[in-house]
Amino acid sequence: MNKTETLELLQQIKDGSVSPEEALNRLTLAPFTQVGDYATLDMHRELRQGQKEVIYGEGKTKEQILGIVKAMRKEGWQNILITRLSPQKADYLKQYTALFYDDLSRIGIAAKTELPQVGNITIVTAGTSDLPAAKEAYYTACALGNRTTLISDVGVAGIHRLLNHLPKLQKANVIIAAAGMEGALASAVGGLVDCPVIALPTSVGYGASFQGLAALLAMLNSCASGVSVVNIDNGFGAGYLAGMINQAIEKGHPAD
């Protein structure tokens, strides 16, 4: 149950078409739905947090993922986000449900529909090799209703490439900076803009990068103010957080 449905229920109580007892029954039954013996869907998450549950695909069987998707579709949910979905599992799901799938980010979106896109999130990557995590952030943000732009391969090894996009960066509500190696991109971006910057360390780099640990520590020690950091390769977390910040900002703006 989302906020719109809850408001409709309250209005029905007010106009007498639904009794308080019936409304209480709906609210009591709605909080969660059991799916087989392997999942319990949180039906009130959208009401509390503004976004429905997201399916983490890694570690689940293809049958379990399909069962969860079917249960969500039964509730009328669309744009069901599935992260860390392997190509094999995606091929299986496509036999039973409409599915958008991006191989690079391993993001799947079941029952994908066009959503109103609000605000302005910009994602920048230091290199092309950072795109898997960056595109995970991109599709996450888009699926949650955020207007999102991706700019790739503008790292500090050629800082002029980043500066060429400065006008776009300065118009963003929030920026995600994805980088491996020494992770310097986040500090560079943070020193150029007046909006929050979410640093996304990636596991890209040679031996002493320690699978992204060097970038993570560098980003945590950024000298630029207003930079926060998510975990290594956590594009979903970066995209989700950016979406929350972006939509909170847009709530304070009058409609265009």
TrEMBL record:
It comes from the Bacteria. Residues 119-251 form the PurE domain. InterPro entries: P2CMN_synthase_LarB, PurE_dom. It holds the Pfam family AIRC. This is Nickel pincer cofactor biosynthesis protein LarB. The gene is larB.
